[in-house]
């Protein structure tokens, strides 16, 4: 007979038994559904089993209603695609930690993880929230405090904090119960508006001439702040603007924060000592105002109650701190900026600093608790340290307390001395530079790549420095020849890059575009390492640091994207009505045997008849000073009026007993050159190394070609996909490239030389009065497509 089970063993056995909740009667489930008010409690219930998921509907507050809108990426041109506008619910998660540990907070939108929603989880339920990152953080909701923060509208696939896009935010207003709405979109220097009744994007005409910083929809109106201090209200029906700048005027950064459905707050951050010799970011202060809806004016306030305002780049929010426990580091009546560096403090009103010249009646840094920003996109993550014992007194741009105790574990790349010390170089936090100074900097950046460097510093700098227009690629959507599809005609900027560090001079010539990776863009460490990626067939992509390169702009070139027909050779465009506006243009397409013309006013392709003038194949098309120029394989050369009302013959001077291959090279906006490769007709053996050139300049007034023997400091680079001219005077001596020279990159061999005028060959029969190979420097052609890459080495 077995011995009786002890009371302790029975208790242990009983506690390990888990009830089978899947067997709960359905009528009890419906009672439970009526009692669950918190959306995350519903999520817990849905994760029990299939029957519970079918009984508990997905919480309405976590749904993300969406609208399909016309795409706007090609504005002002009409896009055929669609984009999705979503209403994203926002929450603040506080990880519950021991009292002595720093509190961690996560602020952002919540989406539905479908794969988790369709899994049955083991008991006890451990439903979690996954925080994106290099290694996603998983928060157990049962161990977190969750605060709803309302919602935010977002265009899916467009990141307002990314420097690769013009999109900076969107606001949405419903108009009536029938579902009509208005969308206002911040597109860098433009505000775009879309009405649901029209479903097309239009540029808002009445706005500021500066870039928009923040858009908010509140109580049936749009509110917008601008980088120059302008503040406007926009009526959603008339789209008329009303100035609404608070008084007295301040040179400040303005942030709009909505508190529930009834209050709109304005936070202005400014330097109280604008004339001081030393700019101390730690002494910046704030002014807070509340919108008086009845009086329609701003009223300054000094108390936020139990509220905490969070200011960030992609939207500002307000939450209540009264449910947070003592000692968690967050208290009411405070403002936290998450966009001003990796370490900061909350702003509070009436803080004593110990300095006589610091006013008490203002919002400024309170050094009670330190805030460490762990992440800003796609979710804001920060850590609130417990109360500090000593106030900071440093006047550096970063709080000195934040680095008073530093513990480092060396990484494999850390350079250590024999004493195991790590040298840390302190880098200025350029994101804290005042807005007014940034505007001065932006006006003095002439080089487009300097603007790119500036845009990569931080989100604030990206919002102030627009993407350089020289690097943008405007495009036209044109029909295919059979009208069954479409092509994209792009205006591609061309550049020449020379890396300085290489022993042999290498040059890369080609079009450039913005690189838009799928992953989130990161802010680059200092020193900024903006790079250009060069793709060369047969080798890994080459990354070149722009700080280590000489960069020369070479104008632009039009290309027909999507046209893969073997007959296609090149395309050129001429805008019309430049003085009167209107945006009309004419396109001339070289389709080998035929020339096709497309007028924007007709929106269709027509054949351009060149008979009886020539029946030959067109070699090259060009535009210069409002006319089209065409070279034919027969040697014929014509200039076309853009309206095709007249044709002018521009045949060069005769070459006795010789033929020629002709190329056009434009130098700036004022000069057009013709380079002829002379081919003797009576030689038994054709030696490519002994071919000579003749160069002529177009005399526009006389309508004829004039032979030239000197092209100054210019270098002509002639290739299969077009010819360019650049100045060699900026290159250092010994780099292999000098002025008054011509280089062909599409020869049948990969080693060649520059052509120069009057080269001594040592042969009596060789004429000096022509352009021929100069064997001073050997040029190795590394690639011809999609980028021309070449190496220049001095011959021994």
TrEMBL record:
InterPro entries registered for this protein in UniProt: F-box-like_dom_sf, F-box_dom, KIB1-4_b-propeller, SCF_F-box_domain
Coiled coil: none
Region (Disordered): 392-415
Biased composition (Low complexity): 394-413
Stretches assigned to the F-box domain: 24-66, 433-473
Any Pfam family the entry gives: F-box
PANTHER family: F-BOX DOMAIN-CONTAINING PROTEIN, F-BOX PROTEIN SKIP23
Protein name per its UniProtKB record: F-box domain-containing protein
Naturally occurring in which organism (per UniProt): Brassica campestris (Field mustard)
């Amino acid at each position: 007979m077995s011995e009786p089970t002890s009371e302790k063993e029975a208790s242990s056995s009983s506690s390990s038994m888990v009830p089978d909740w899947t067997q709960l009667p359905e009528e009890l489930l419906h009672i439970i559904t009526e009692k669950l008010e918190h959306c995350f409690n519903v999520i817990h219930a849905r994760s029990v089993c299939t029957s519970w998921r079918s009984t508990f509907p997905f919480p309405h507050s976590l749904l993300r209603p969406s609208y399909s809108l016309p795409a706007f990426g090609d504005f002002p041109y009409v896009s055929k695609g669609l984009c999705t506008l979503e209403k994203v619910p926002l929450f603040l998660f506080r990880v519950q930690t021991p009292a002595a540990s720093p509190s961690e907070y996560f602020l952002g939108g919540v989406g539905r993880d479908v794969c988790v929603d369709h899994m049955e989880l083991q008991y006890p339920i451990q439903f979690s929230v996954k925080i994106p990152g290099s290694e996603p953080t998983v928060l157990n909701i049962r161990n977190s405090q969750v605060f709803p923060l309302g919602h935010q509208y977002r265009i899916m696939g467009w990141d307002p904090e990314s420097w690769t896009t013009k999109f900076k935010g969107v606001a949405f207003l419903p108009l009536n119960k029938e579902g009509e709405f208005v969308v206002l979109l911040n597109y860098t220097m433009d505000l775009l508006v879309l009405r649901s009744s029209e479903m097309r994007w239009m540029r808002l005409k009445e706005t500021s001439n500066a870039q928009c910083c923040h858009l908010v929809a509140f109580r049936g109106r749009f509110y917008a702040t601008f980088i120059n201090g302008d503040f406007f209200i926009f009526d959603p029906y008339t789209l008329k603007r009303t100035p609404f700048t608070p008084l007295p005027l301040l040179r400040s950064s303005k942030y709009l924060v909505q508190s529930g459905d009834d209050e709109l707050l304005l936070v202005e951050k400014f330097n109280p000592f604008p004339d001081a010799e030393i700019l101390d970011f730690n002494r910046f202060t704030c002014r807070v105002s509340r919108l008086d809806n009845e009086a329609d004016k701003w009223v300054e306030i000094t108390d936020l109650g139990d509220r905490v305002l969070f200011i960030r780049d992609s939207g500002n929010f307000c939450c209540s701190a009264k449910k947070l426990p003592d000692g968690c580091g967050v208290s009411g009546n405070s403002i936290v900026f998450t966009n001003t560096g990796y370490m900061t403090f909350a702003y509070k009103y009436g803080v004593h600093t110990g300095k006589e010249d610091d006013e008490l009646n203002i919002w400024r840094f309170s050094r009670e608790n330190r805030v460490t920003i762990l992440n800003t996109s796609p979710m804001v993550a920060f850590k609130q340290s417990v109360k500090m014992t000593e106030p900071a007194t440093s006047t550096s741009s970063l709080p000195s307390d934040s680095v008073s105790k530093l513990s480092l574990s060396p990484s494999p790349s850390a350079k250590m001395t024999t004493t195991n010390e790590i040298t840390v170089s302190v880098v200025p936090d350029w994101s804290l530079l005042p807005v007014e100074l940034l505007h001065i900097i932006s006006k003095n950046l002439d080089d487009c790549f300097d603007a790119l460097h500036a845009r990569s510093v931080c989100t604030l700098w990206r919002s102030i420095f627009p993407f350089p227009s020289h690097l943008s690629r405007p495009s036209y959507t044109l029909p295919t020849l059979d009208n069954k599809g479409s092509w994209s005609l792009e205006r591609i900027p061309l550049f020449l890059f020379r890396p300085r560090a290489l022993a042999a001079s290498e040059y890369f010539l080609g079009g450039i575009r913005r690189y838009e990776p799928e992953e989130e863009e990161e802010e680059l460490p200092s020193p900024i390492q903006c790079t250009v990626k060069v793709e060369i067939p047969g080798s890994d992509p080459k990354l070149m640091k722009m700080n280590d390169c000489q960069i020369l702009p070479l104008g632009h070139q039009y290309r027909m994207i999507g046209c893969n027909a073997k007959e296609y050779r090149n395309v050129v465009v001429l805008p019309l009505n430049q003085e009167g506006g209107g945006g009309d243009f004419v396109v001339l397409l070289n389709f080998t045997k035929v020339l096709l013309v497309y007028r924007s006013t007709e929106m269709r392709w027509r054949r351009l008849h060149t008979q009886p003038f020539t029946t030959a194949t067109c070699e090259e098309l060009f535009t210069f000073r409002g006319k089209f120029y065409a070279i034919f394989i027969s040697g014929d050369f014509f200039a076309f009026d853009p309206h095709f009302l007249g044709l002018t013959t521009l045949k060069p001077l005769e070459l006795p007993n010789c033929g020629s291959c002709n190329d056009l090279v434009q130098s700036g906006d004022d000069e057009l050159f013709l380079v002829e490769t002379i081919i003797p007709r009576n030689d038994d053996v054709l030696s490519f190394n002994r071919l000579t050139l003749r160069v002529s300049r177009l005399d526009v007034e006389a309508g004829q070609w004039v032979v030239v023997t000197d092209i100054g400091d210019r270098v002509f680079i002639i290739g299969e996909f077009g010819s360019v001219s650049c100045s060699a005077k900026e290159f250092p001596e010994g780099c292999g490239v000098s002025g008054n020279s011509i280089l062909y990159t599409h020869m049948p061999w990969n080693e060649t030389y520059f052509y120069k005028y009057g080269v001594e060959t040592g042969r009596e029969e060789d004429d000096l009065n022509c352009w021929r190979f100069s064997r001073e420097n050997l040029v190795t052609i590394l690639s011809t497509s999609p980028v021309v890459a070449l190496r220049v080495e001095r011959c021994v």
